[in-house]
């Protein structure tokens, strides 16, 4: 048995990455796609060899053949359509960030529990085996004790003024779009939550006052911190560094990976530099299979729905810090 997926929207991330990933997965198949424009849905369905096209999201959710929904809509629509999908009895994979804030995300998680469906936030990079490899090296003390992390994710699309990423009310901005990657990576690697955030950002009048660049620090326990920057108006970078007392690990292509040597990572110690080769895998396919195994066999998700709430709490603090130019403490979940 395979999971029949329906896709809400014809977003580029769906066409270029997630749909091909689901097709390559062992547990899933793409059954239908929907758009507010039927002709557009039909065109994409034909192009990507998808059996069914719908001219509304509601029609797709009403299709009893569909088991799970992938949602790559603009951020402000994540909560609405995730909950509608759950209420229709569909499992949900929602593009990151899960919602506009932790409160909305909590509502989504509660809705999934009520409907007894799987809900996952789409952070594809976390399913790549190299992070398990890195965790194993850290556990063995390969670089000693962790003293800090530095992550960056920037690109330049500033000329595309109509991009949904540049609409403030829609959840636009670099923190929402790419800052969530180093933030989630630090939480994943340290296996703890930060205590406070301080962020400085460039809010652009040309782009509806969204943050086009942001630099920040997250304070973790034992004096460890993540320093990071993210941007949509800067040269492309996509790196992560883990600094230890006895060495460091560098991941040159930390979040977006390609089939080339840049997918490998490097361990630097007093013994020299070791390049760790990583086999090419489709991390979108691995993500689909993790969700698929949870749906089909009840296997726990590697990152439960509650993780999305915790990640959004950090993002809330980062946004508040940037807007109010102050350090923001992050309270523990009650």
UniProtKB/TrEMBL annotation:
Organism annotation: Gracilibacillus dipsosauri
InterPro entries: Gfo/Idh/MocA-like_OxRdtase_N (IPR000683), Gfo/Idh/MocA_domain (IPR050984), GFO_IDH_MocA-like_dom (IPR055170), NAD(P)-bd_dom_sf (IPR036291)
Top-rank taxon: Bacteria
Protein name: Oxidoreductase
PANTHER family noted in UniProt: OXIDOREDUCTASES (PTHR22604), TRANS-1,2-DIHYDROBENZENE-1,2-DIOL DEHYDROGENASE (PTHR22604:SF105)
Family to which this protein belongs: Belongs to the Gfo/Idh/MocA family.
GO molecular function, one term: nucleotide binding
Keyword DNA-binding: no
Keyword annotations from UniProtKB, A to Z: Oxidoreductase
Pfam families hit by this protein: GFO_IDH_MocA, GFO_IDH_MocA_C3
Domain (GFO/IDH/MocA-like oxidoreductase): residue spans on this chain: 131-250
Keyword Oxidoreductase listed: yes
Domain Gfo/Idh/MocA-like oxidoreductase N-terminal: 3-121
């Amino acid at each position: 048995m395979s999971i029949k997926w329906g896709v809400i929207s014809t977003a580029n991330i769906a066409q270029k990455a997630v749909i091909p990933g689901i097709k390559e997965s062992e547990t899933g198949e793409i059954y239908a796609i929907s758009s507010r424009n039927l002709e557009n849905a039909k065109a994409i369905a034909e192009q990507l060899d998808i059996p069914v096209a719908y001219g509304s999201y509601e029609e797709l959710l009403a299709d009893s053949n569909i088991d799970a929904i992938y949602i790559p809509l603009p951020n402000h629509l994540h909560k609405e359509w995730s909950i509608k999908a759950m209420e229709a009895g569909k499992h949900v994979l929602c593009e990151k960030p899960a919602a506009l804030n932790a409160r909305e995300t909590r509502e989504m998680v509660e809705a999934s529990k009520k409907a007894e469906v799987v809900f996952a936030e789409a952070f594809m990079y976390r399913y790549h085996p190299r992070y398990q490899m890195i965790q194993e090296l850290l556990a063995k003390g390969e670089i000693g004790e962790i003293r800090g992390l530095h992550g960056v994710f920037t690109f330049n699309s500033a000329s595309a003024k109509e991009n949904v990423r540049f609409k403030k009310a829609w959840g636009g901005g670099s923190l929402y779009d790419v800052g969530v990657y180093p933030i989630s990576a630090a939480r994943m690697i340290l296996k703890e939550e930060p205590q406070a955030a301080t962020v400085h950002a460039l809010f652009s009048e040309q782009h509806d006052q969204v943050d086009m660049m942001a630099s920040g620090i997250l304070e973790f326990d034992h004096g460890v911190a993540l320093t990071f920057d993210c941007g949509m108006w800067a040269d492309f970078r996509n790196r992560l560094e883990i600094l230890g007392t006895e060495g460091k690990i560098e991941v040159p292509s930390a979040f977006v990976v390609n089939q080339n040597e840049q997918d490998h990572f490097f361990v630097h110690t007093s013994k020299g530099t070791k390049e760790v080769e990583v086999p090419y895998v489709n991390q979108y396919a691995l993500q689909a299979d993790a969700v698929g195994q949870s749906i089909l066999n009840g296997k726990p998700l590697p990152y439960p729905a509650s993780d999305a709430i915790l990640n959004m709490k950090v993002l809330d603090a980062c946004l508040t810090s940037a807007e109010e130019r102050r350090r923001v403490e992050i309270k523990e979940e009650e």
